[in-house]
Design goal:
Associates with stalled 50S ribosomal subunits. Binds to RqcH, 23S rRNA and the P-site tRNA. Does not require RqcH for association with 50S subunits. This is RQC P-site tRNA stabilizing factor. Residues 1-61 form the RNA-binding S4 domain. It is a single chain. By secondary structure, the protein is of the alpha+beta class. It has one domain: RNA-binding S4 domain (Structural Genomics Hypothetical 15.5 Kd Protein In mrcA-pckA Intergenic Region, Chain A, Roll), CATH 3.10.290. It has helices spanning 3-9, 16-24, and strands spanning 28-30, 33-34, 46-51, 54-60, 76-83. A hairpin with a 2-residue loop joins strand 3 (46-51) and strand 4 (54-60). It is globular and about 35 Å long. The protein starts with a helix and ends with a strand.
């Protein structure tokens, strides 16, 4: 599954266009490597996403094409959240 689609389906980022924009600005890493929006993700990958002053590290637990809002959190687990000052 493409990175931008996973971020939208998991509701980590609400819109796919925003996910694509963030990835293409080198603000997302998968397993320590900078990722583009078209990068393929798989179960077990670790994502590091930098949003402004917050950095989130999450592990992909499951991949689905669609989810309901309450099921979206099952697709990933948050390992760490840091706030940069």
């Amino acid at each position: 599954m493409r990175l931008d689609k996973f971020l939208k389906v998991s509701r980590i980022i609400k819109r796919r266009s925003v996910a694509k924009e963030i990835a293409d600005k080198d603000r997302i890493q998968i397993n320590g490597k900078t990722a583009k929006s078209s990068t393929q993700v798989k179960v077990g990958d670790e994502l590091e996403i930098r949003f402004g002053n917050k950095t989130m590290i999450a592990k992909i637990e499951d991949l689905r094409d669609t989810t309901k809002k309450d099921e979206a959190k099952e697709l990933y687990s948050i390992i760490e959240e840091k706030y940069n000052s």
